[in-house]
Design goal:
Elements: H1 2-27, E1 37-43, E2 47-50, E3 60-64, E4 69-76, E5 81-85, E6 97-104, E7 106-108, E8 117-118, E9 136-138, H2 161-166, E10 176-179, H3 185-194, E11 202-208, H4 212-224, E12 231-236, H5 242-261, E13 265-271, H6 273-286, H7 300-308, E14 322-330, H8 339-347, E15 350-354, H9 356-360, E16 373-374, H10 383-388, H11 392-406, H12 414-430, H13 440-451, H14 463-477, H15 479-486, H16 493-511
Parallel strand pairs: 8-12, 10-14, 10-15, 11-12, 11-13, 13-14
Antiparallel strand pairs: 1-2, 1-6, 2-5, 3-4, 3-6, 4-5, 7-9, 15-16
Helix pairs in contact: 5-6, 7-8, 11-12, 12-13, 13-14, 13-15, 13-16, 14-16
Length: about 525
């Protein structure tokens, strides 16, 4: 009797299990899935070669091995695929699978990236958790069409007197910063970022091939000045695979383009594109691309042109936003005619050249005015600058030539001596400590003061002290004129005379003479 009850219980349990199984099978789709898979054939430093997938497209994101390491399809042919790794090569071996994702590399954009330090893949490097963004954009995007662009005529103040007065930068411009190692290139770009604190400009700093310690100092300066509130930092350090260094500037540009598409202004700093070009050369040679001049592949010009062409100012119908690019490159022995510098000079709208000779003399920022140029020019300057700095660039360049000539011991006439004395005071006025940007109105005031001779009687060592006094007095005594200058109004004769008088009073109050 007991055995029969057990058999009945077992039969009911089996029937119930079969019922559950039938219901589960009804929910399962038995359709076959198609997936293209290739195999790793060769592994090198930062790149791999595979025999597929056969349908892969150029720059498609791929997954390699069981750990799903990411890579980009770089060289695509019928026989093989050259893949640039975005992750470390450790753990990848010949025979590992290569799977398509059907996607391109994307980066998170929007306000969630501002104030963060991330890598080119959007992964956090600041220990603050993942970057949560509702939108992602491809790192490679086509540049805006010509008819979508507007003229560059709105200034982007850097806070540096020598740049804003003599080599002006406009919103939507591409201004190259170049010079030998340790001449202050990054400092110029950082001052430009610090000066955007209350302008509404979103800033992106992209470190390519830099030491982590160097970028840490940059971030520290940004945090101390409160600039991280409107700045995103994209980092691909020298320790990262060359693939990440290759995609880093494009990821930074995508974040800037998102800001532009929202009708806002963005400033993006690429520090530096020399290391970016070297990373691309390394990848290209490992993949067997033929070398050309200086062992760079033939498409090295296209590498940077397709990046910087995305920097522009859009028409008002498209929101009127802009992306201003400050690419940085490093020269060797002041050789600006090398391959990469000449390429970038031809792509950009001007260059700010920093001289090691001026740097060694303590003339900071060490901007060589004679070798620097802005092809947009005075169109981007506030009207007040045009009055006080219109002929200053030419006069300053002539002074430098005259000063070099006077070193031969030639007897100088009185006019030449006065020109030299005025030029030396202009040079002292253009000096500026790091991380101390100056407003446009104060720049105009001190430049007008030196042009009008208010500092002619002072020793050179007292110029900096006199400048501080002039700026403080102008802010206190002439606030309406300062506001009109910032509001892009012209400097009238009455306002110019008022600035001259107040500058002379400030000098006399401190030194008891001058003006």
């Amino acid at each position: 009797m007991a055995n029969s009850k057990e058999r009945l219980h077992l039969r009911d349990a089996i029937a119930q299990s079969l019922t559950y199984l039938d219901r589960a099978l009804e929910r399962v789709e038995m359709d076959a899935t198609y997936r293209e898979v290739g195999r790793v054939v060769k592994v090198s430093a930062g790149v791999i070669t595979s025999d597929g997938p056969s349908g892969v497209k150029s720059m498609e994101l791929l997954e390699i091995g069981r750990e799903r390491r990411r890579g980009l399809a770089f060289d695509v042919s019928s026989a093989k695929v050259g893949i640039v790794l975005l992750d470390e090569v450790e753990g990848i071996a010949a025979g590992d699978s290569v799977r398509r994702t059907g996607e391109v590399l994307q980066v998170p954009v929007g306000e969630s990236a501002v104030g963060r330090i991330i890598d080119p893949l959007g992964l956090p490097l600041d220990g603050k958790g993942p970057v949560r963004s509702a939108q992602r954009l491809p790192v490679e995007r086509p540049a805006p069409a010509i008819l979508e662009r507007a003229p560059v005529d709105v200034p982007l103040q850097t806070g540096l007197k020598v740049v804003d007065a003599l080599i002006p930068v406009g919103r939507g411009q591409r201004e190259l910063i170049l010079g030998d190692r340790q001449t202050g290139k990054t400092a110029v770009a950082l001052d430009a970022i610090l000066n955007q604190k209350e302008t509404g400009v979103v800033c992106i700093y992209c470190g390519v091939g830099k030491r982590v310690s160097a970028v840490a100092r940059v971030v520290r300066d940004l945090e101390r000045s409160g600039a991280m509130e409107y700045t995103a930092v994209i980092l691909a350090s020298e320790e990262d695979p060359p693939g990440r260094q290759f995609v880093a500037p494009y990821a930074a540009m995508s974040i800037a383009e998102y800001t532009m598409s929202r009708g806002k202004d963005a400033l993006v700093v690429f520090d530096d594109l020399t290391r970016h070009a070297r990373a691309y050369r390394e990848l290209s040679l490992l993949l067997g691309r033929p070398p050309g001049r200086e062992a760079y592949p033939g498409d090295i010009f296209y590498l940077h042109s397709r990046l910087l062409e995305r920097s522009t100012r859009l028409r008002d119908k498209l929101g009127g936003g802009s992306v201003t690019a400050l690419p940085i490159i490093e020269t060797e022995e002041q050789n600006i005619s090398a391959y990469i510098p000449t390429n970038l000079i031809s792509i950009t709208d001007g260059q700010i050249y920093l001289s090691p000779d001026l740097f060694r003399k303590g003339i900071l920022p060490a901007v060589d005015v004679g070798r620097s140029v802005s092809r947009v020019g005075g169109k981007t300057q506030l009207p007040a600058y045009r009055r006080v700095a219109g002929d200053l660039r030419l006069a300053y360049s002539q002074f430098e030539e005259l000063e070099a000539f006077s070193r031969f011991g030639t007897r100088l006439d009185e006019d030449t001596r006065r020109t030299l004395d005025r030029g030396r005071r202009v040079r002292e006025i253009l000096k500026q400590p790091r991380r101390q940007p100056i407003t446009a109105a104060e720049q105009v005031a001190v430049l007008h003061a030196v042009n009008e001779g208010a500092l002619d009687d002072l020793p050179l060592d007292d110029i900096a002290k006199a400048e501080t006094a002039i700026r403080e007095r102008i802010r206190k005594e002439l606030p309406e004129i300062m506001q009109s200058i910032e509001a892009a109004e012209k400097l009238s004769d009455e306002d110019a005379e008022a600035i001259r008088k107040e500058a002379a009073k400030a000098v006399k109050e401190i030194f008891g003479y001058g003006g």
